[in-house]
Write a structure and sequence with these properties.
The structure holds 2 protein chains of 2 kinds. By secondary structure, chain A is an alpha/beta fold. Chain A is 37% helix and 16% strand. In chain B, α1 (28-42) packs parallel to α4 (116-133), α3 (82-95) runs parallel beside α4 (116-133) and α6 packs across α9. The chains are: A alpha/beta, B alpha+beta. The interface between A and B is large, with 69 and 48 residues.
């Protein structure tokens, strides 16, 4: 497959791995957080950690839009879906995430709510035109990548004069979450957690550009390399970060130059700026209340805001007390440090945010990484012989 | 004066008619539907007796029986439809015991208002698949449910078959050191079906691989009666099926990503939709687990069969108390190929 295979070449990966191994300082350790779930997924799916030296540790950050949505917002979406005449639309990943009492949208659907999985905001808009007697609510989630399509859908609804379309807006902002992590006491003051560098978001950066990361590279003195979601992108980003750490540099570098510019997508940015404003505070699953970290529709677009059209509950129920997602997302703990991991919390029955989506740190570890903890010698056997 | 005796003065209006509740009511309308549509299409001596059961002789030996339900949407997809799929799926379930399929049953649960033309198309396709496989549908049933209480049409089947003497194939017989073979490319059926779902709207030339595998199985068994496990990786794809076998047999597996054949079009579609081809359904492929010593000859037999041209060895069974299915990735790393958690849903970002 063109433009894909080039970035999944095992030979090249091994060459990069060899140069990382040669360049790391054996006496030092390198703690690199990949912020995005897309990177976590690539690392797990392609087994990239096996290619890295033992003193390069990847910390899986909170950049999974499904994982960071708090229980209260899921409950609110289910509440909306239960209103008479409402069709609630959302992206597929969102359906399985449990809210309070473990009710997910999938379960609400089974109860009889009209909940549809859509692939784009345009699908939701189409439903509004074909179901004029019903209220179509788009449950909008995601980082800066998915915000512009939501904006476009509202613009189109406005142009079409659709009064039965609205958006339950949960769009969140990447830089505020990274700042929150860097400001957490473990990282900033106590120094108990080492967080040396960041792999910056791929798709998010195509919209916002590389400029927004310059502030915290400078302020927190942490190098950032923006990288694509393919396995070679991740390997190359690790090599670039190792070099920055070795040199004592803390710059924003762009590995994903085939798609990301310094200023990003001006058209998308100005559309978002025109239509959305910052929420003073927004709850993130795992990170808690994060100031100025999410968007809501501005007053001129209130007619398309589901939170203004309905009296949507604003409760903030807490996660399970034993759940360690917050600490895992900040790199303080690993999935195995959580008592719930693999016992009551599994991908089939997730308790916390990190287990809900394939991009979550716990789910990725459960799905792709568990064999590393198999007893020594247990999982050894003859290597398969190639017949090609 | 006597009138000529005609059970149904007006033939079924296949072109414009629709199934209504009388077609399941046990009266003349139902008799007519059975006569003019089902018996005409399936036409075989056991069915033609028109009894509530089929009577036939069976040879002595070990028999297998399977049952299956088909609820696919859309009903017609590139490379097949719910009718042919019902035959292939049931024949394959019988064949995966190494058995020779003998006969099938078919139950139709039809929603009121379903076009007779579509029903005929499905039944004809089912009859064609059954004739091509040489496995007759010997008994059947029709029910009609009210509008809104079914999704067009559901088909349930049963299948029976005879296991040749000396063949002992079962999901719990895989052993450490056994070779893992698959008969062709993964994910064709699932992607072909998904491409037809209205909300996806992408165009592809990918056809479902829906096919009856019993003739290939017969060849494989003739050459190597000691095959340990056969299973068709349908729902949940290769990943789910390997995990089932690993758990049943109490072993682990190690496969190699680069050895699993996947069509470029299927890879492309999966890339677009955020799916993993290892988890996408197949309806005309099988997994074979056999002793290392038999691997090459079984693979050669599979490749010589038209349905096994792309057969490949993908890995090896090994001792592992966790029963993990692991995969060496194309990058050279390792990962667990786990059960699917819930349904495979596209990722967002």
């Amino acid at each position: 497959m063109k433009y894909i295979d080039e970035f999944r070449d095992g030979e090249v990966a091994r060459a990069i791995a060899a140069s990382i191994k040669a360049e790391v300082d054996a006496g030092a350790s390198y703690h690199i957080m990949e912020f995005c779930g897309g990177h976590t997924h690539a690392i797990s799916r392609y087994g990239l950690e096996d290619l890295l030296p033992a003193n390069v540790r990847m910390i899986h950050g909170p950049g999974c839009p499904v994982c960071v949505l708090p229980i209260g917002r899921i409950d609110a979406a289910i509440w909306l879906a239960r209103q008479p005449g409402v069709i609630l639309c959302t992206y597929g990943d969102m359906l399985r995430v449990p809210g309070s009492k473990r009710v997910s949208l999938l379960k609400a659907k089974a109860e009889g709510c009209d909940i549809r999985m859509v692939y784009s905001t345009m699908d939701a808009l189409k439903l509004a035109t074909t179901h004029p007697d019903q209220q179509v609510v788009f449950f909008a989630i995601g980082f800066e990548t998915t915000t512009p399509p939501t904006a476009v859908a509202i613009k189109q609804a406005q142009a079409l004069g659709l009064t039965n379309f609205s958006v339950f807006c949960n769009h969140v902002l990447t830089p505020s979450a990274i700042t929150q992590i860097l400001d957490s006491p473990e990282v900033r003051e106590l120094g108990t957690v080492k967080l040396d560098a960041f792999i910056g978001p791929a798709h998010v950066s195509t919209i916002i550009g590389s400029r927004p990361y310059e502030y915290f590279a400078e302020e927190y003195q942490r190098p950032v390399v923006i990288a694509g979601f393919e396995p070679l992108d991740v390997m190359q980003a690790v090599r670039m970060l190792v070099r920055q750490i070795n040199d004592g540099r803390f710059e924003v570098e762009n590995e994903f130059s085939r798609a990301v510019t310094r200023d990003g997508n001006e058209k998308a940015k100005s559309l978002v700026a025109e239509m959305f404003e910052l929420r003073r505070v927004f709850e993130w699953r795992g990170l808690g209340m994060v100031p100025y970290s999410a968007l809501r529709l501005k007053e001129p677009y209130a007619a398309w805001d589901a939170e203004r059209r309905w009296d949507v509950p604003q409760d903030t129920p807490a996660d399970n007390k034993a759940c360690e997602c917050g600490a895992i997302l900040r790199g303080v703990k690993k999935p195995l440090d959580c008592k719930l991991f693999g016992t009551v919390c599994t991908p089939e029955n997730p308790m916390g945010s990190c287990m809900v989506s394939a991009e979550g740190a716990c789910a990725a570890y459960w799905t792709y990484g568990r064999f590393r903890d198999a007893a020594p010698g247990d999982a050894e056997g003859p290597e398969p012989e190639s017949d090609e | 004066m006597t009138l000529p005796r005609r059970a149904h003065p007006r033939p079924l209006d296949i072109a414009h008619g629709r199934v209504d509740l009388t077609h399941g009511g046990g009266g003349r309308a139902m008799a007519q539907l059975v006569e003019e549509l089902f018996i005409k299409a399936f036409d075989n001596p056991a069915l033609n007796q028109r009894n509530d059961q089929a009577a036939f002789d069976v040879p002595a030996g070990r028999m297998v029986m399977t049952t299956d339900g088909y609820v696919i949407s859309p009903l017609f997809f590139p490379g097949g439809d719910i009718g042919s799929l019902a035959v292939h799926g049931t024949v394959n379930d019988v064949a995966m015991a190494g058995a020779v399929p003998l006969s099938l049953s078919a139950g139709f649960i039809i929603e009121e208002g379903f076009p007779l033309a579509d029903l005929k198309r499905i039944v004809d396709s089912m009859a064609r698949a059954s004739r091509e496989a040489g496995v007759p549908v010997v008994t059947g049933d029709t029910k009609v449910v009210e509008k809104g209480k079914g999704d067009g049409i559901f088909i349930t089947t049963a299948g029976i078959g005879m296991v040749p003497p000396g063949v002992e194939i079962s999901g719990d017989k895989a052993q450490a050191g056994d070779a893992i073979l698959i008969s062709g490319t993964m994910g064709d059926h699932g992607v072909a079906v998904m491409s037809q779902r209205e909300s996806l709207g992408f165009e592809t030339d990918i056809l479902s691989d829906s096919a009856a595998l019993h003739t290939m199985v017969a060849e494989m068994i003739k050459t190597s009666p000691g095959i340990h496990v056969l299973r068709d990786p349908t729902r949940g794809g290769l990943a789910a099926t390997l995990n089932e076998i690993a758990t049943q047999s109490g072993i682990g597996m190690l496969i190699e990503e680069n050895l699993v054949p996947v069509r470029p079009e299927v890879r492309g579609a999966c890339e677009l939709l955020g799916l993993d081809p290892l988890y996408v359904a197949n309806e005309g492929k099988l997994i074979c687990i056999c002793a290392e010593a038999d691997a090459e000859v079984v693979l050669a037999v599979m490749r010589a069969h038209p349905l096994g041209e792309n057969a490949a060895r993908i890995g090896t069974c090994r001792a592992d108390s966790h029963h993990f299915v692991q995969m060496k990735t194309g990058m050279g790393g390792m990962r667990v190929v786990d059960w699917l958690a819930g349904e495979q849903l596209p990722r967002i970002c």
